[in-house]
Automatic annotation (TrEMBL):
Gene3D superfamilies: Jelly Rolls. Coiled coil: none annotated. SUPFAM superfamilies: RmlC-like cupins. It comes from Rhabdornis inornatus. This is AEDO dioxygenase. One of its GO terms (molecular function) is oxidoreductase activity, acting on single donors with incorporation of molecular oxygen, incorporation of two atoms of oxygen. One of its GO terms (cellular component) is mitochondrion. InterPro entries: PCO/ADO, RmlC-like_jellyroll, RmlC_Cupin_sf. It comes from the Eukaryota. The keyword Iron-sulfur does not apply. The keyword Iron applies. Transmembrane segments: none annotated. Signal peptide: none annotated. Keywords: Dioxygenase, Iron, Metal-binding, Oxidoreductase.
Length: 244
């Protein structure tokens, strides 16, 4: 089937995102979300005028990152559009870069790899009083959070979008493996600290490994909230693709 022009595709993604997330509690939400997932799965790097590369040395530090001129950030962000109900943009990661484990309070999200390979670890928060809690490792780092470590998977441009909801896979860590990577990101609603949607970072607390193989998933774990890592910041770059 012939593809529509590239501008039409990303505009249709934005239009469907607006329809989907204006009524996330409505009866048609599931159907609209599926349609958005189908459209997002069609997007390729060339649709957004992107070629495989890492963040640019010209990226301007954003979000409180160190404003060191000429220093290539580990991650940069290309803003596409934002409304009250959703935001959309592209994250570019240099080879080996990591977006640390973080949450999306009360938010839905969709992530589509445009180039490269990402390893994405997904977790759910668990109520503090849930049964069969694992032993708490000695941390000494402050309050701890119980979580279900659900999955750790590799995603490529051939993979379907990675989805998160307010209750499922809401915490995740994203690593670029075997080269630079980029992904199209939709968050609904956008981060907004004034409305309780601030980003929090976490560290996984693990006891000594029981063997050479990593423990099987899913499994319950403990997390501790941490400040943003000193070696992680996000620069800003112009979005080169079709206007939305």
């Amino acid at each position: 089937m012939p593809r529509d022009n590239m501008a039409s595709l990303i505009q249709r993604v934005a239009r469907q995102a607006r329809i989907t997330f204006r009524s996330p509690a409505g009866p048609a939400f599931g159907e609209n979300l599926h349609r958005l997932q189908q459209l997002l799965d069609e997007v390729r790097a060339e649709d957004l005028h992107l070629a495989p590369r890492g963040p640019s040395a010209a990226a301007v530090a954003a979000g409180g990152g160190p404003p060191w001129a000429g220093v290539v950030p580990p991650v940069s962000y290309m803003h596409i559009c934002e409304t009250e109900s959703f935001s959309m943009g592209v994250f570019l990661l240099r080879s080996g870069a990591c977006i640390p484990l973080h949450d999306h309070p009360g938010m839905n999200g969709m992530l589509k790899v445009l180039y490269g390979t990402l390893r994405i670890a997904c977790m759910d928060t668990l109520p503090a009083g849930a049964a069969a809690a694992p032993p708490l490792p000695a941390a000494g780092s402050g309050p701890c959070l119980r979580a279900l470590f659900r999955s750790r998977q590799h995603y490529t441009p051939a993979s379907p979008p990675c989805l998160l909801s307010p209750h499922t896979d809401n915490l995740h860590q994203i690593d670029a493996v075997d080269g630079p990577a980029a992904f199209l990101d939709i968050l609904a609603p956008p981060y907004d600290p004034q409305h309780g949607r601030d980003c929090h970072y976490y560290r996984l607390l693990e006891g000594p490994p029981a063997g050479a193989e990593p423990p099987a998933l899913p499994r319950e774990v403990w997390l501790v909230e941490t400040p943003q890592a000193a070696d992680f910041w996000c620069g800003g770059e112009p979005y080169p693709g079709p206007r939305v």
